Every structure is written in structure tokens, then in C-alpha cells.
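Why do we care about 3D structure at all? Because function follows from shape, and shape follows, mostly, from sequence. That is the central idea of this module. The next example makes it concrete: a single protein chain, its amino acid sequence, and then its structure expressed as C-alpha cells.
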Amino acid sequence: MFLINGNGQGFMTLLGMPFKISPTNLDLEIARTIAWHTRPGIERAVEIATWGADENLLVAAAVAWWLYTRQRPRQRLAANHVLLTTVAASVLPHLLKAIFNKRRPDRLTVLGHLHGVPISGNPLDAFPSGHAVHVGALASAAARLPRTERNAVWSIGAGLLATRVVLLAHWASDVVAGLAIGVALERLLRRLTGFGADSR
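And the structure:
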């Protein structure tokens, strides 16, 4: 059972406080379904899998690849772009979470916790999903890869996005919004790095 009703509306509180956002009816329905049907074993497995889009791990991997490519000129542009994109995708969600307040679904369910749902992050940091911003940014950059590698990245990304919803760390709309923000961010940063300008 979830303890609020969603109307999908956000509003600005007085004195410059953050925007408060409510989940949509579809968000609530998806979260209720997960709370009813999930189990502790599922939640434990998904909790491990979701680390694949953790900002600290992704930044560390991007830095490692950037260092590796210093002696490989043909890969430098891509490495520069991926590092900048990954760092930006780590910073931007924190800025947005300071502007928008949306309670995480795991704070609004009792049944979910009885079925193994863990507690994730700060209670009002549902919007946007930082993991989804990262996935969107890297999936957008992966559009430059050959089909096999591109599809692999997109498939893994889709699985990582699903983990945030199954854990009730985010509402489905937070994940969709984060994905869109990540794609837009990566495309914007191409103008700075020149990544993708060479059609080859």
C-alpha cells in the first residue's frame, strides 16, 4: 500500500524553497505492483546489479580509460568526451535534486519493506534518477559504436534502469526523466568536445 495519491503536479513552495513534485497515477500503480510481487531474493540481486550505474564507479572507470588513452591518439577524443560527460552526469543530478523535492517510493510503502525493498538515499531525492542520467548519457554516446557493441550497451543500460524502479528507489517517471536528461546532456557536450563531428 502506498500512502499518498499522485496528481503529477509540481508546485513552488514559499520563500524560494524547492519545487515539490508528486508521482503520477501510473507511477503509483507500477510501485504498488512491485511492492506486492517482489521478494527479498529479487531485491538483493537487483541491489547488487544497480551498482553498475553508480556514479563513483563510472567516474573511476572513465578516468582509468582517459589515462589509458593518453598514449593512443585515435581514442583520445572519445575518452575526453566520455570523461567530461560522466563527470557532468554526476554533478547535474545533485543540482537538480536541490531544486526539486520528490519523495522516494521506498519511503511510502510498508508492504514493500516486508517483501525485501531496501532504503535508498535521501528521502526527497527521487527526481531525477542519477543512475538514469548516467545511463542516458552513456547510451547516447554509444550511438557512435558499431551495432553489436551499441546494442549491448543499450541492453545493459535498460537493465540498469529497471533496477532503480524495482528497488523503489525512484518512480518510473524519475527514471524516464533522468534518461532524457542524460541524452540531452551528452548531445550538448558534443558541441564542446567535438565528439561525433567526424562522420567516420
